[in-house]
Amino acid sequence: MIRGDLYRVAHPSGRDPKRSRVFAVVSRQVLIESRFSTVICAPIYTSFYGLTTQVLVGVEEGLKHPSSIHCDDLVSLPKVVLTDYVGTLSRQKLDELAQALAAALEIECI
Fold it and tell me: Which InterPro entries did the record assign (predicted)?
């Protein structure tokens, strides 16, 4: 598992109406490789509102249709539920993800 990997998670939460949802792993690599049992993930939705906290993704990343990563809705997921690999983000998409995360958390990039 690496930062930028996409995984489909069955029944991600009680408030999510979908049976499954794809999530992008956004934790830093050192945490992913640690013994810590969870990682931070951003959900992927088919909706896109043009916000700076969203990253467009689609077929190139292994999805069935155009979608977007929503960095305003970060969640902590157990690593053990991240087993249904969908795809991974390109270097360009990882850079866009970093910018979207910085916007979502109001972090000044250096």
Answer: PemK-like, Plasmid_toxin/cell-grow_inhib
